[in-house]
Amino acid sequence: MPHPLPPSDTIAAIATPPGRGGVGIVRVSGKDLSALISGVTGRKNLPPRQAVFTPFYDAQQRVLDQGLALFFAAPHSYTGEDVLELHGHGGVAVMRALLERCLELGARLAQPGEFTRRAFLNDKLDLAQAEAVADLIDAATGTAARAAARSLSGAFSAEVQQLAEALIETRMHIEASLDFPEEELDSVLDPFVAARVVTLTENIEALLTRARAGALLREGLTIVLIGAPNVGKSSLLNRLAREEAAIVTPIAGTTRDTIARQIALGGIPLTIVDTAGLRDTDDAIEKIGITRTWEAIERADLALFLIDAQHVQEATLPATDAAILSRLPEAMPRILVCNKSDLLPTSVADVGQLAPTLINTVHALRSVNISAKTGDGLDALEDAMLDAVGVAHLTEDTFLARARHLEALQQARQVLRDATQELATSTPALELAAEQLRLAQETLASITGEFSADDLLGVIFSRFCIGK
Ligand SMILES: Nc1nc2c(ncn2[C@@H]2O[C@H](COP(=O)(O)OP(=O)(O)O)[C@@H](O)[C@H]2O)c(=O)[nH]1
Ligand SMILES: [Mg+2]
User: Fold this and answer.
1) Which residues surround ligand 2, an ion (CB under 5 A)?
2) Which residue owns the Cα nearest ligand 1 atom 22?
3) Atom of ligand 1 nearest to the CA of 374
4) Could you give the CA distance from residue 351 to residue 171 in angstroms, rounded to a whole number?
5) Are 57 and 46 in contact (CB under 8 A)?
6) Suppose 28 and one of 38, 42, 84, 313 were both cysteines; which one would form an S-S bond, judging by CB atoms 3.0 to 4.6 Å apart?
7) Domain containing 121: what range?
8) Does a structural domain hold residue 239?
9) 165 in any annotated domain
């Protein structure tokens, strides 16, 4: 399925964020902008890729603003069409007037992502790169931004394409042997082809691992703080967020609602959720808070299970903690956090030796002793959190992947596993194996958008901001 043809009308939008700013930009893209250029600037034409300082005129030849007009002639532009950028003063009214002038001169308001959509339809970007544009704009951390920039540069697409090409080559070997059904040829070819398919599966697996780490950077993770009242959950949230986000008092039941804060740890955007302490209560408001806590737990990726460090010495869990534990979803990964280590008579190290029993009881990945009051042990806790969410795979060559990409890679891997099984039988159905390889190749191609349905494009580009 080839791409649909790009539309031929002219689109315009304010490309800078709304509000006041030193500079604001209106961007226009279309097949022929000469009428619009002369209407706005009073000039017959503009030299391509040169900033021209000029007044911007309204229909009555009054000056609306003055600034830089920047013209990019097709196909050497972001969209592949003629593009005009009007750099004016970044005021709400000025920008609106400038945009309205462009609409008066025949442009229509661009939809979200429409500039990038045209860039895709004109082959300036593939689909994974277009998605990276939005991800770069939305990136919450520097690491995520770098990973998006790598995807935008085409690094991810190139690896996907390499895999797709290797698949084609292998499939051609199989198809060639179908054309010569001499048994001799079959028996020579098969081991080689089968080995190739195994290698390809491994390569997809490796790419998938890196893509998963990249998806983490994009989606972020939710970490929930749970435990009995007064163990120090709100104090820990404030520590992690480095602000007084939640109220801390010695009164049990202080936190009644869930409070969330965004933090960045190791470049990964994390949402930390503080919850109402889990206990039996008659207080109506606290009850609602506890219901919300369980809802927050269901949505979380990791739980920090806080207990008072003195129980580590006792090596048993109090009933309240045990009750919480019994309701925690079994699959929820958790770290045992022993808080208030500053109150312990023994040294922190000694306490650590008792923790293994409790780690087992709690089914925790590990335990960390901290004092939310003094900040002791906080670094170790942050390391443990990063470890638990699997950022070990985060390297400099990570690219920002989306769920759509992970799904495609997983599907391709599954089809190749099926093909491997087929080729391992004593009389493999080679037509079937060839078909499976073709399917895997098509699935990979959907990542870069070689085969892409119009509705998929609609979903992807509608999530962009206007003006991009
Ligand atoms: N000594 C000591 N007190 C703490 C520590 N963390 C919290 N607290 C105190 O324990 C009480 C309850 O803390 P809070 O954060 O509100 O607990 P939450 O109910 O689990 O949210 C407050 O008086 C805190 O000052 C700690 O590490 N050491
Ligand atoms: Mg609290």
Assistant:
1) 233-234, 255
2) 250
3) 27
4) 60
5) no
6) 84
7) 11-126
8) no
9) no
The model's pTM: 0.75
Ligand 1 centroid from CA 368, angstroms? 16
CA dist list (Å): 4 to 12, 24, 107, 123, 266: 21, 32, 21, 11, 41
Ligand lying nearest the CA atom of residue 228: 1
CATH number at residue 71: 3.30.1360.120
Over residues 339-387, the pLDDT tens digits come to 998 988 765 455 555 667 788 888 888 889 999 999 999 999 999 998 8
Residue identified by tokens 């920008």 is 95
Task: Give dist(CA 159, CA 387) in Å, integer.
Answer: 27
Q: Whose CA is nearest to atom 17 of ligand 1?
A: 232
Q: Is 234 in the pocket of ligand 1 (CB under 6 A)?
A: yes
**Domain annotation covers residue 407:** no
Report the distance separating Cα 427 and Cα 422, nearest Å: 9
| Residue-wise pLDDT tens digits, 54-68 | 999 999 999 999 999
Report whether residue 340 contacts ligand 1, using a CB cutoff of 6 Å: yes
**Is the CB of 232 within 6 Å of ligand 1?**
yes
- Specify the ligand 1 atom closest to the Cα of 250: 23
Q: Is the dihedral of CA 405, 408, 409, 410 positive or negative?
A: positive
Number of domains in the chain: 1
